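re the bet — no i am not wrong, look at it urself. input seq straight from the record:
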Amino acid sequence: MQKKVKIVIVEDEPISTAYLKKLIRETEIEHEIVAELDSVSDSVLFFGSDTEYDIIFMDIHLGDGTCFEILNTIKISKPIIFCTTFDTYAIEAFNYNSIDYILKPAKLNDIEDALSKYYSIKKVEEESYAHRMGKMMDTIAPKSYKKRFLIRTENKLNLVDVHNICCIYSEDGHTHLVDKSGKEYVIDFTLEKLEELLNPEFFFRINRKLTLNIDEIKSVEDYPNNRLIVELEHPVDLELVVSRNRVKDFKNWLKGIL
């Protein structure tokens, strides 16, 4: 459900104001006309106040001047839809916060198209805001990662702390966890899902089939085709090759650059 749009109309002709309000009603959007202004002086006073609004329908020629006198006096950050008889001001209008320029007499589809642009812009702004808030919340409340695995083997439950993991690999459609003692367990997670669950400070997926614990890395050597090969503190019977497209990220990870 869309939030009610708060609209300001800047128009000095009562007939034009009434007609515009009629068209806005016909769009059937939830809206409220919070102000009808018919002069430069009244508009400057209104836009200089703290009244909340979302969008402006603005004529260019008013009784005591042009709308550009308003816009050059008061900084307006809200979207503006210009509605005017004149087409000679279009370029100048778009120097301001204009999202559309409608020539009178306006038609219903003109108003619908203009409001559609407004909603598109608003959606992008809201998504951007949500993204920024998400990043801020990640900083305030850092993401928590999996600390241990509870793994069933036959009639036994095994608790494996993530710091006791040597590596995790995928083979024949199954994911295998190898602990530092060399024990292997089949777990119900894909390597893709584990990239989300395990702390990236300690775990890195070196290729499509292998994820390593940084505490287990003993040495790293060059390998053919611009790849790297890793030796672990607790050797495993696997070829621990860092794929070429992950070498740069792997080196950054080793340096502590996430």
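see?? The longest helix spans residues 108-140. told u. also Helices lie at 14-26, 40-47, 67-73, 90-93, 108-140, 191-197, 247-255. so pay up
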